[in-house]
Description:
Layout: H1 16-25, E1 35-37, E2 44-47, E3 52-62, H2 74-90, E4 95-105, H3 111-127, E5 131-139, E6 145-155, E7 170-174, H4 179-196, H5 208-215, H6 222-230, E8 236-240, H7 244-255, E9 257-262, H8 270-279, H9 283-289, E10 295-300, H10 305-308, E11 314-322, E12 327-330, E13 336-338
Parallel strand pairs: 4-5, 9-12
Antiparallel strand pairs: 1-2, 2-3, 3-6, 4-6, 7-10, 7-11, 8-10, 9-11, 12-13
Amino acid sequence: MFDNKDTATTPISSLGEFGLIDHLTKHFSIQHKTTIKGIGDDAAVIVAGKNKQLVVTTDMLVEGVHFDLSYMPLKHLGYKAVMVNLSDVFAMNATAKQITVSVAVSNRFPVEAMEELYAGIQAAAEIYKVDVIGGDTTSSTSGLIISITAIGEAASDKITYRSGAKENDLLVVTGDLGAAYLGLQVLERERQVFKVNPNAQPDLENYTYLIERQLKPEARKDIPVLLDELGVQPTSMIDVSDGLSSEIIHICKSSNVGCNLYEDKIPLDPQVISTCEEFNMDSTTIALSGGEDYELLFTVATEDFAKIQANPHLSVIGHMTKASEGMHLITRANTKIELIARGWNALDTEESTA
Length: 354
Ligand code: ADP
Ligand code: MG
């Protein structure tokens, strides 16, 4: 046990999640030629043949930090835990093939609860055509922890990093943003109502899409396939797990470019717009900082504009600039605001997540 009585200590929150990872791993060096990419992208990349590479990624979900079982059914949790990982595989423009599943579980959970969790994992594995090839099971003193590792593969020239964006490239996002975060707000509100009045019948009809996006996200397996069909090789790519703003900043920093993001281009579902009005929230802020969308954010060369322009899955939301121009949101009122990462950060505050 680390005893901090006699030594000066630094709170982890002073570094933040990414600062901590960087601090702990900055002296690690790559020793094998087969390690193409180590720490620092959505997945690591490993040589697997003459023209083939594997991608490997791990994500952990912790009860009370990433999920609350009072509104997250265990089956959905199992499904979502797989999605969170597959999303990082697709963000490398790769195809997901295998997963391992590790769980730490307290004696509060009966076998039936674990069966539910695994029914969700199995459903995800079947639908996304991945094999569950192993894992680990252990006990926990409090609550449930799930850690999944996903393995994918792609032709070497298809793998897409966060670092390839160039000045003038177009910034593109799939689907729509902000719904999963609002779904969580709706579920949280219902939980509070239920606490006060257990007989209250929730009317969730106006929020079906939001709740589905929170409880049953789908990773964008279709996008690497679509890009291939369209003949588009993205120059950089990342998945949107922490909020658009944070992901744009990752691409800009990794690629050493700046960015102009246009507020009026950010794709929003009508339920996001109506619920933001009802909750008195700003829909742009929700899209920028909400998180858990599991959409893909990527850049393409301007020459590829015609190929993606009319596609209903894809929205061009901005373009990349010189790094010296900075990272900005151009508002509907045509003012320029600096983009800052307000994405959820598990290590910042107790109730947030990463
Ligand atoms: P993502 O949000 O795409 O899952 P993360 O922000 O979790 O990515 O991780 C960023 C990078 O840091 C990844 O390359 C990941 O493998 C690496 N990483 C995260 N935590 C650790 C750790 N404890 N030790 C070593 N590498 C880590
Ligand atoms: Mg990611």
